[in-house]
User: Which sequence fits this backbone?
């Protein structure tokens, strides 16, 4: 499958929706897992702002790559983001799009000491 690296270094990124488990099977509630590591997968929506334009991206991230303090509005750094074009057919209708995956989503807010 094609993977296109995404350069996020010039963008401002913040959490739009906190991480949630990625569901592999809606009927059984089974959580999706990473094919290589077996780690449970999470989804996190981020607001990606660059050149005055904002987009909401839905990222898939292994749970091991999510820092625990990700709440709405938290500024974050994205590591290893790739875009993957996809296409499928369901009930005779073709659908296509781009999915985004990251190795890690890390809070840029300093942890409170105390």
Assistant:
């Amino acid at each position: 499958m094609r993977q296109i690296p995404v350069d996020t270094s010039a963008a401002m990124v913040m959490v739009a929706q906190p991480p949630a488990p990625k569901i592999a099977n809606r009927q059984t509630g089974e959580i999706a897992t990473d094919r290589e590591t077996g780690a449970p997968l999470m989804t996190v929506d981020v607001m990606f702002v660059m050149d005055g334009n904002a987009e909401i991206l839905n990222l898939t991230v292994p749970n091991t790559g999510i820092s625990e303090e990700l709440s709405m509005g938290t500024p974050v750094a994205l590591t290893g983001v790739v875009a993957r074009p996809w296409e499928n057919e369901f009930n005779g209708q073709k659908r296509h799009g781009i999915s985004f995956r990251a190795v890690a989503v890390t809070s840029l807010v300093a942890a409170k000491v105390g």
In short: The mean pLDDT is 91.
